Every structure is written in structure tokens, then in C-alpha cells.
């Protein structure tokens, strides 16, 4: 991947990484947060950006948000740019304006989002972009499309979701499964494999020796799963030279991570980590898919149809995702390369 070497002079725009962002459901806040994030003038771009989606949705979002930006329709990711006042957009033009409504899910919107996501995946697989971001999509639109049953069906096989906030990073072993299914999902192999994947991913992004904390499953990490499953997995990976500790009581590990003891926490199920993360910081958080050859992120909030078209959506999470993608594509870890 391309990027900015530490201590080097800034490269010309043509040498910067290329990052695509799928604008999300056109009826939701996705187009709005994309436009707001790209229009920020607080720091220069460390990548070339291109949006994928409906140019009509973006123009409406810009107008309702009071932003003086225009959109340059392009034919390929090679035409991505760094101009905040004229944002590059690839619109397949398969979603007529009359086929969707602001604030409402719809079958046409769902089908369009799936098409845009598949295009971003194709570009990434072909090496035409260095990374891509998914703006908020809507589960109802996806179901109405008749193409997929749930949002989880869009998660690439073999990946895990690393949630990142300014003070806390968490990866759960599983995503949306019932609490009754959780204990069976916590095995020596599943815990060990996730620890290894996290460490390898951090190294790829320029961070060696990440300090990994592994949460216990039971209160005070005093159950049979903690003793017979989690502890052996941690010891296995420690023997491989990884900096990992656990199982650590789940009522304290997140506080320890926020205080700087751990760089990332492995949680035993979705909500165990999400409750801590969203309590620590909701705005400004983003989600990174680990286990891919390219950089792929999303934001930890939904399409918020109820406030779509009002120009009031917070865009801190999308701005964080874009800056994070820039840093990861440049091999600079979680720091932002200005």
C-alpha cells in the first residue's frame, strides 16, 4: 500500500492512498455525515477520497446541512481527489431519485447499497483502492431488497470487528448471537485465533508488541470457562511471544485499558465490549474489520431515519473513520498522519 513515510516530506496528491466511502442508505444520515466529514477543514487530507453512491442524495445532504460544496462525478477511483470544495463521487446511476425517500427505508435503497458495497469490495480486491469505509446502512432497507436477510450477512467471512474510540479498543469473539449461545462460542481455539489475528493486524498497521487484555466470561473471571478455556488460550499465545494477559475480570478490564494498561481488549461477546465502549465514548468511535488484506472500516451507529434530512446528524464518527483509514493505509497505526 502507498502512504506517507515517517519524517518524509508530504507527497503530491497523486501519490497518496485512495480511500472510497460508500454513502450508506440514501434515505438515512449516511450521505449527510459523509459530506460533513469530507468538508471539515481542521486538518489536510492524508489520502485521496472518493464517495460511492447517489449524487442526488449527496446534493440534498449538502444543501440541508448548509455546506457550500459541489460534487465531481468521476468514472474510476483513479480520479479520487483531495479538494474539500469539490468532492469526487462515483454514481452507478442505477438508483433513480424517485425510487427512494428521505427518512424512509426502501427496497430500491437496499438493492443500491448492496451494489455499492460490492463495487467497493471489487475495487479493493483489484488493488484500485487502499481501503474503504461503509457509512450507516439500514437493516429494513436491506431486508426489503430481498437480497440478504440481515446486516450480518454483509460481514466478510473470517473477519472480526475492532471497535475503536479515543480511549478504548475492543474486539468481541462473536457478534449478534444470543446470550445462551455465548459459552459454546468461547473455545481455546476461538480465543487463541482472535488474539493472534489482533496481534498480526496491529503489526501490519505499524504497531508491534500490542498489549492485549482478554476479558473473562464470568463475574470476576472465576468460572470454569475462564479457568479451562480462556486461560489456556492466553498461555498458548503468550508462548508464541505475544504480549497478552487474561482472563481479567470483565468488571475491571475496560477501566484498565482506558488507563493505558492495554492497547486492546478481547471481549467474550458483543455487548460485553459494546456497553463499555459506548459508555466511554460514542461520538468519534469507528469500527475496523480485521482479517482482510485491505483496510475496511465502518461507523458504530445506524441510519437514524428519524433525523435524516434535518442537517443535525453528528459526523464525528465518520470523520474519525476517515482519518483512521488514512493512518492505517499509511502504516501509521492509530495516529493520524497530517
Descriptors:
single chain; 338 residues; alpha/beta; Isopropylmalate Dehydrogenase; 2 domains; twelve-stranded mixed β-sheet; 10 helices; 34% helix; globular; disordered N terminus
Characterization of this structure:
By secondary structure, the protein is α/β, with parallel strands linked by helices. The protein has two domains: 1-165 and 281-338, Isopropylmalate Dehydrogenase (3-Layer(aba) Sandwich); 167-280, Isopropylmalate Dehydrogenase. Helices cover 34% and strands 16% of the residues. It contains ten helices and twelve strands. A twelve-stranded mixed beta sheet has the order 3-4-2-1-5-12-11-6-7-10-8-9, sandwiched between helices. Helix 1 (30-39) crosses helix 2.
Report the CATH C-level class of the largest domain.
Alpha Beta
Question: How do the strands line up in the largest sheet?
Answer: 3-4-2-1-5-12-11-6-7-10-8-9
Q: Separation of termini?
A: 18 Å
How would you state the average pLDDT, rounded?
A: 90
Q: What is the quaternary state of this protein?
A: single chain
- 3D shape: globular
CATH topology of the largest domain: Isopropylmalate Dehydrogenase
Major sheet summary line: 12 strands, mixed
Count of helical stretches: 10
- DSSP helix fraction: 25-40%
Strand content: 15-25%
The CATH superfamily of the largest domain appears as Isopropylmalate Dehydrogenase
- Low-confidence stretches at least 5 residues in length (pLDDT < 50)? 1-12
Structural class: alpha/beta
Corresponding CATH architecture of the largest domain: 3-Layer(aba) Sandwich
